[in-house]
């Protein structure tokens, strides 16, 4: 699994809680679609500001997907 700082971990937990509150009662497929849409938006924004971030994000995403499988 990816290593995160305490601050990153806190931010992730806060965002998950907020998103899941918004999606309460929605089917899992909708929750997953929204999660991937948020992820894509974040990666796109970061890549626009710093193209090197796109490479780093791709590595991180690959690690995350491998951990989920």
SSE topology:
Elements: H1 6-23, H2 28-49, H3 51-68
Low-confidence stretches: none
- The number of helices is 3
Biggest pleated sheet: none
The rough form would be described as globular
Number of strands: 0
Mean pLDDT: 85
Name the helix and strand elements from N-terminus to C-terminus, one letter apiece: HHH
Query: What's the helical proportion of residues?
Result: over 70%
**C-alpha-based Rg, rounded:** 13 Å
Q: Indicate the proportion of strand residues.
A: under 5%
Oligomer: single chain
Number of domains: 1
Structural class: mainly alpha
Euclidean distance between termini CA atoms: 11 Å
Task: Tell me briefly what this model is.
This protein is mainly alpha-helical. It is 84% helix and 0% strand.
Description:
By secondary structure, this protein is an all-alpha fold. Helices cover 84% and strands 0% of the residues. The chain contains three helices and no strands. Helix 2 (28-49) packs antiparallel against helix 3 (51-68). The longest helix is centred in the middle third of the chain and has 22 residues, at 28-49. It is globular, with a radius of gyration of 13 Å. The mean pLDDT is 85.
Keywords:
globular; 69 residues; 3 helices; mainly alpha; 0% strand
């Amino acid at each position: 699994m990816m290593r995160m700082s305490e601050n990153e971990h806190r931010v992730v937990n806060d965002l998950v809680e907020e998103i899941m509150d918004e999606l309460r009662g929605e089917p899992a497929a909708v929750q997953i679609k929204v999660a991937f849409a948020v992820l894509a938006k974040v990666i796109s924004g970061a890549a626009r500001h710093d193209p090197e971030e796109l490479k780093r994000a791709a590595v991180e995403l690959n690690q995350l997907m491998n951990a989920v499988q």
